[in-house]
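Cross-check.
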Amino acid sequence: MKTRKKSFHFIKQIISLCMSVSLLLMCALTATAADGNPNRPPSNEGTIQLEAEQAKLSGGVKVNTNHPGYTGSGFLDGYWNYGGTATFTVNVPAAGNYNVTARYGNAAFNPATVSLIVNGTKIKQTSLPMLANWDTWGIQTETVTLKAGVNKIAYKYDNGDTGNITLDHIRIYPTPPPAPIEAPQGDQLFKADEDFVKPIGRTVFYNDTLWLALSGSGAEFKFRGTKAQITIKGDQVASGLTDYARIGIYANGVRVVDDLLNQSQKTYTVFESATEQDVVIRIVKLSEAMRSTAGIQEIRVNSVDGIHPTQGLAHKIEIIGDSITTGYGVDDVSMMNWYSTAKQDVTKTYAYKTAAALQADHSIVAYSGHGIVSGYTGDGVKNTGLLVPNIYEIIARSAGRIDGNLDVNNSPWDFNKFVPDLIVINLGTNDYSYTKDDPVKQAEYRDAYVEFLKQVRSRNANAHLMCTLGIMGDDLYPMVEQAVAAYSNETGDTNISAMKFDVQLWEDGFGADWHPSEATHTKAANKLIANIKAVMGW
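Predicted model, tokenized:
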């Protein structure tokens, strides 16, 4: 009997112990699930977590343990060293979009920035908000496109970054698919890809959206129906306070929308009629690439047979220029005012007017402040940060990030997408702020111009090159003529010419910052049109 009592007592102790362990486990699990930790991203099926110490480290980045709260066996610091990099290797089962969440520390800058590099290409500069102190951890999520199989994801202190962060781990998981779009009865929805629209200028189709950066870039389509709506998507600049992309939308040649993209998304009704009509819709980015981009996210029509790209025109012209060509300040009422995307309108420039008058498809590659040997400089010191030759072969130079993700500054342009018959080059106004009347510096401009002509020719084998200058000053025009002659003598290429614009006149007025008025642009267009007809036989 004694033995049975002892056995029963022992069993009770075991049961009690098991219940205590179970209770502890339940409490732990409950605390884990409900602690509301903002530094823990939501659990996603297929999530891969890579501790920072698993990365390949270079440039001074190293493992440390002197701040609490890290996962794994440590975290990374050393990001105060320029070039410091942590490269993670991740294997994903399928190609597609993935969220990459970095757990980081930052008590130095608000925000701190580092470059996110995927498979050797810089995707974007990621911003990491400042935290309370170095013992606090935050998370920052970016969306990237990965290929099936092995991928390399790197965080690097690169050019233009602040660095000075710590990095604990990254998590990679598939981006949730977008919710399906349901259209009202009778409506049809389309994406702005080349099956449905004609791209205008340099554009990029990314994440089901046709993105526009450069002045005059856009899309055009036609349909027969009663209604059309366009949804335009903004980049990260749309959530800021200034430099919004300016968009123009035309229905049968009439501008029905002129707006600044100051929201992440806007939908415009661009045509509506009680009866079916034949309609051509054109969407144009009126402001330049430097400050912001915009995307055509969705086209909704009530149509007889959907939408169709308009036909390509008889000729194709590329115009390479600076702020004059972007329409800088053309809508401003005072020459004393400064830069604003709200006052840019490329359709009022000599470039756009020329292409329209000659019934030519256009591609405008123009950036304010840029030159060939020097960008604009106020102190005579050469500005090599604003050179068109350095960015001619990319989609665009812009502070805007497409979908907050794709960096067009590191995305090459496919020159097969637009093959021009004629290329007009109008560069030198900003160079003159460096050269002034110094013959040595002017010769430097001439020689750099020759090299740029070679670069343009290497990408456009058959186009006629027409070199122009003069609207805001013609002091460097003799160097343009010399560059054309030197290029021709050196290469044997005679498919090239030069033309001097007339300098703007006081009586024609000025736009912002002494830039040409629309009246001046119209005069310039008339001269250029006549010259093109004579040279090209159009």
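The two ends are 117 Å apart (CA to CA). Confidence is low (pLDDT under 50) at residues 1-43. Passed to J.P. for a second look.
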